[in-house]
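Schema walkthrough. Field components (list of strings):
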Amino acid sequence: MSDQKLVNLTIEGRPVSVPEGTTILEAAKTAGVLIPHYCYHPGLKIAGVCRMCLVEVEKWPKLAPSCATTVADGQVVNVYSQKALDARKGVLELLLINHPLDCPICDQAGECELQDYTFQEGRADSRYREPKRFNPAEDFGGDVLYVTNRCILCTRCVRYMGDVAGDRALCVEERGDRAHIGIAPDHDLSHPWAANVIDLCPVGALVSKDFLNKARAWELDRTASVCPNCSQGCNVTLEMRDTTLVRMKPRSNSEVNHFYLCDEGRLNYEWVNRADRLETPMVAGKPASWENALAAAGAALKGATAHVVASASLSNEALWLLKQTAGTGKFRVAKGAEAPLPGVPDLALRADRAPNATGAELLGFSRADQPLAGAGAVVVIAGDDCAGLDTGALASAKAVIVLGSVVPAGAPAGAILLPIANFAEEEGTFTNLRGRVQRYLQARPAPGLARASWMALAGLAAAAGKGGVYDSAEAVFGAMAKAEAAFSGLSYDSLGLKGQMAAGARVNA
Amino acid sequence: MGYPHKQHPRETPILSKYFGDPEARTLAGWKARGGYKALPQALATDPVAIQNVVKESGLRGRGGAGFPCGLKWSFMKIGDGKPHYLCCNADESEPGTFKDREIMRWTPHALIEGCAIASHAIGAETCYIYIRGEFTQPIAVMEAALEEARAAGIIGPNACGSGKTINIWVHRGAGAYICGEETALMNSIEGRRGNPRIKPPFPAVAGVFGMPTTVNNVETLTAVPHILNNGAEWYKAMSLNNPKSTGSKLFSVCGNVARPGNYEVPMGFPFKEFLYDLCGGPLPGRKFKAIIPGGSSVPVITIEEAEQVKMDYEGFMEFGTMLGSGGVIIFDDAQSMPKQLARLARFYAHESCAQCTQCREGTAWMTKILERIVAGQGTFEDLDTIFELTENMTGKTICVLSDSCGAPVTSGITRFRGEFEALITGKRSSTVAVG
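Field assembly_structure (string):
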């Protein structure tokens, strides 16, 4: 930073100091001014084609596209001068003359930049008396539907696919007002990261087939979270309609996923809403109160050496409490093919299809293909549904304690079942494959009597005479940070919503 | 010689002297006519010295913008370690312009010599001649001439025995008007879609293949050997009006005129005499009405204004229009200006590259409004909308295609408002010509 030359200029009367080479548009953000724009996106190459970001630079004969104009010392930039406002109003009018204005049936409505800027700076009426252009919608493959009529030709999708995804599947076809986004012959948007074009599209031209007509943008509650589908730990926003998760979108984090989320991660969310959940604690095949169930489980654990089957989908907090209560154990991780996003360093859909394998390993748990193998008299199964495992060992066990959101396959009728929340229903942290510890927040209530995993395990620890009293996930994390060298120095406050590297990882880096 | 008419005695044939003379196409024929005299000398001269001679001559770009040629060359930093490129703009896509076509058809070696000198002057070893794809005959002629020049060692790895490398290649355009814009032309050469690029960076910094590049028009480059042979003073002395406009200029004349064709006159020649004497005046029984003097992108002027014009960069500017590429389009009293301008707007709407919003949507909207007026469905508000739309489309886009659509239309409405109003009020239909 220190060797970077700073440029001083004035934007909307406010003095701004930014590094040399910054664009006026980015500099204006530091002054709290968002210059309207469509084709510009911080993750993409500059195109300068929408002409929406025109601003007036004093002493310049023409308006300047702020996305493509770098700052210079002493510049005086007027974003809201009459000349600049008129130019942008003109652009909005032209963008709208052939736009279908089908906002009432458009998925983008409510989060549409064309709506927003028109409301902010556009004309109230239209002078256009001619017939509108019409083109049919086109299925681009993957999760993407192209509604041609709504397209404003900002070319964000074309640049993303070519420059970031490294697959020149999209292009601009035709010229003049006949132009539209075209797809190369024998190509479709089945690239593993292609659905990002939906988020990049500032209007409703590229929409998700999965989300099509599911909900209106203003009905959704949004919660910051972390994608649970692989060990990359992409930051996401969970979008809930009432208590149903209807969409998972990337949340920008320049240290992890920039602006992107892979298709597999994005679309693998329906399981969060599944209704056939374990909702009540069970003891000996009968529903029980938490008090009785925990007491029974605690009694079974006291003095016994438990065989622990953990899960890489449990939070750091839950895994640490599990370690306190029953010791470390084994966990298994589902595997899949890696799929990197070429334009972003160190970003890929990872082979480990679980969010917290690194956290589990830092806490002393180890990987095993058959985590149940060698199980003895007392077995604790936390978070693993045992699907596909040889569960023969469970039949002979004296006590089986299950913490899960579903009843595991092969669980004996007499098992103690403790219902826990899934990641969308609780607070916690995951540690990604590079050792970055990241928080996820609660987006929906857990069903029935199910408890957050940290809460259920804190109860179990207390019942087994192994642990303190915790009133929140944050308190558990605090205690873990004191006890575990790998997490030392971290707290929920220091993690924020962008995460921090675990101590072990910091040393390695 | 002249083509298609005999040379008019009042012309100043410098570039057009051998138009219509097939022997001038061959290397031997061209040498017999004084060709390739300047090149060997130029190759032995310091590039900056050549730049200075051209600067001194006052030669300005003949493609339309009129940028001083020597100054443009001086932007190329000789010895910066990067490969430099020269692009000869032979796209000649501007409607009404057909001077470069004749230069390439009849005197291909004149262009090759100009390209080779310019390449040396800007430190380029490679020159691309970007020829409009529809110019099938000029392409064939140029290819044959380049082959001859290569075989004779005039260009190639040891051009004229100077030890310098100058390779010249022909690149065919694929039919887009906008590829005559220098940055779109460079994209097209690179094999990309012919979209203009944002400036900066300017071509002299990052042009074709990201390397320093100069783009010059055919006529500009063809004038260079004459300047080196006869001196900058000779070229400057040709100017008849404003000393900022020097040398001779080819004008392509088309439309409602007795003798359409190419005419070469010195800068500052009186337009009135040009129209009535050289071009033979209007067709029998007709009268000139309006003129677009510099290719379809420049504002239209009335014949009364045109008769006062001195034909140079400043002379046309005085009447609110431009010399442009020198494509003179003449309309007589049998033409409906609304119909002509609607046709022109349609051309721009068709050719817009679709990058900038104002151009993509504006040119098409403009066309629809004009065509509605021509069909008798217009309103007075439409005329106001056209002016506001033009304001919106001018000076706000990457290139000037959008401006070029608005300029002839608004200038036409200003000067021929009566014709538009007659169509709007239903007093006249566009099919009734004379009135």
